[in-house]
Amino acid sequence: MKKITTYILKYWYAYALAILCIVIAVSLDMLSPLVTKRIIDNVIIGGEMDLLPKMLILIFLIGIGRCIFQYLKELIFDLVSARITVNIRRDLFNHIQRLSLNFFDKNNTGELMSRVKDDVDHIWAALGFVSMLIIEVVIHTGIVLFCMYNLSPSLAIFPTMVLPIVAALALLMEKKLGKIYEAISEENAQLNTVAQENLAGVRTVKAFAREKHEITKFLSHNKRYYDLNMQQSKVFIKLYPYFQFITKLLPMLVIMIGGYQVIEGKITLGTLGAFAEYSTNIVWPMEMLGWLSNELASAIASTKRIKKIFTETPLITESTHPVVLNEVKGSVRFNHVSFSLTEKNILSDISFDLAAGKTIGIMGATGTGKSSIVNILQRFYDITEGEIYLDGVNIKEMTLHQLRSSISLVMQDVFLFSDTINENVKLGKRKHVGNDEVIDAVQGAQARDFIERMEEQYETIVGERGVGLSGGQKQRLSIARALAKKTPILILDDSTSALDMETELMIQRSLAQIEATKIIIAHRISAVRNADEIIILEDGMIAERGTHDSLLQNKGYYYKTFMAQYGDYLDTPEDLEVVNDERKVAACQ
């Protein structure tokens, strides 16, 4: 993360102008007590009545000037702090986007939302009205003390003595509040996470009648958040009365001691009146110190948490001099690939050659590493051993953009954005996909019928994560999105599990006409049976490999899966010996 000063220095001229406006506004404000002094000494006591209209006009002009410069300094601080905050939030979001998936594996969504929104807002406040008031307090206090010493050095000693005491109290408050603010922010992130997860999974919660449990969980975090805020209030309430006591006591001391000096003839009544105004003027900066230290402590704690995210570095990095292919044809080769994650071995010694335009099917029980092949091919994670090649080039030598933009992925867990169907299908290449191509894609995914039955058709807004659509409809839109992208490599990760057999068969016919390298991960035999090669994973290793017919002859995992899915359609066990007969297989489907 850039230092905060780096962002500020970019707008140094604006801050300089704002500070100049503060100086002028405060200076004008400090002229009022001097005008009061003239009115008391010269008009009321001296009887110079002709001076009164001039003094009143001067007070009016001072008020107008003060309003103008106060408005300008607030406007400048607001504009500059807003721009800096936009830059910080942009840089933070861009940095998060560049981080590898392992970062998101260990950081929940609610916490990241708190960092991007709440913590940046605290910095916004600190760079805006909080910093403005801190600067104004310093300038205001300096000018008031200067005016006080000019009027009566003996009376000015008292506010000078009080200021260090108030500053010490402010520092003590900031120190006590710092840790509490950090705990409040962490609990706020937890609260956001619980609420976000509950609302996103509200159907699951209701399906399992878990409302009471979720409410209890939310209330426990809410109670913790309440307790921390009460701790903050107790610290503030405990120390703030000292500020109020000091600020109320100071004007009383000035009037008492100053009154005695007026009686003794050491100062004039007008001087006492002006000094009383100055003592009142120096009160509000002292009262503000406690609140400002409170806000500053919150911003400092937020800055620390944001810096912690900026210290995270992506594990997946590009080569210093990457290879950029003129055209990606789509041949894929895994050469003795092994992959481990968090000290757990997921894949071991995986090797296969997939020529451009060919299809490979991947099957295996749950947890055998099928989806991990997709993750490492797209470099969401880096492999532990071996090499992966795309068109003969090690994927570690390619740019991430070319690698990932060459692959269309239909994921097992379908994610649709809260947008129109048209925009969701265009997601892969939003600027390059026309409406006609969208229609072709949804036709190939067998989604056109249900889309065009909707009132708004392609402009229908789907809910968050596709709420309002069935599982099969979401899968078909996900397939359409991948087809619209038109890349040399198409990956289907259990993408038809929610579809009926008839719809799946029609989609497979559409996919068969696409000239692309295909990697099909599935549990259904029907999804992979026509692949040029099928590999069976077991415990992260290739246990079987071959074509549909050869794997049936081996009578291993693939054979058992076939029997489990289609055994009821076969007349006798001997029918398996001639299962390569296309008519018999078609009958099984």
Q: What brief labels describe this structure?
A:
ABC transporter transmembrane region fold, single chain, four-stranded antiparallel sheet, alpha/beta, 64% helix, 589 residues, six-stranded mixed sheet, disordered C terminus
Structure description:
The protein has helices spanning 4-10, 12-45, 51-98, 101-106, 109-151, 153-200, 202-207, 211-264, 269-281, 283-310, 370-377, 400-405, 421-425, 435-444, 448-452, 471-485, 501-512, 525-528, 548-554, 557-566, 582-588; strands at 332-341, 344-354, 359-364, 385-390, 393-394, 407-410, 489-493, 517-521, 533-538, 541-546. The protein is α/β, with parallel strands linked by helices. α17 (501-512) links the parallel β7 (489-493) and β8 (517-521). α2 packs antiparallel against α9 (269-281). The longest helix is centred in the middle third of the chain and has 54 residues, at 211-264. Residues 576-589 have low confidence and may be disordered.
What is the topology?
Layout: H1 4-10, H2 12-45, H3 51-98, H4 101-106, H5 109-151, H6 153-200, H7 202-207, H8 211-264, H9 269-281, H10 283-310, E1 332-341, E2 344-354, E3 359-364, H11 370-377, E4 385-390, E5 393-394, H12 400-405, E6 407-410, H13 421-425, H14 435-444, H15 448-452, H16 471-485, E7 489-493, H17 501-512, E8 517-521, H18 525-528, E9 533-538, E10 541-546, H19 548-554, H20 557-566, H21 582-588
Parallel strand pairs: 3-8, 3-9, 6-7, 7-8
Antiparallel strand pairs: 1-2, 1-4, 4-5, 9-10
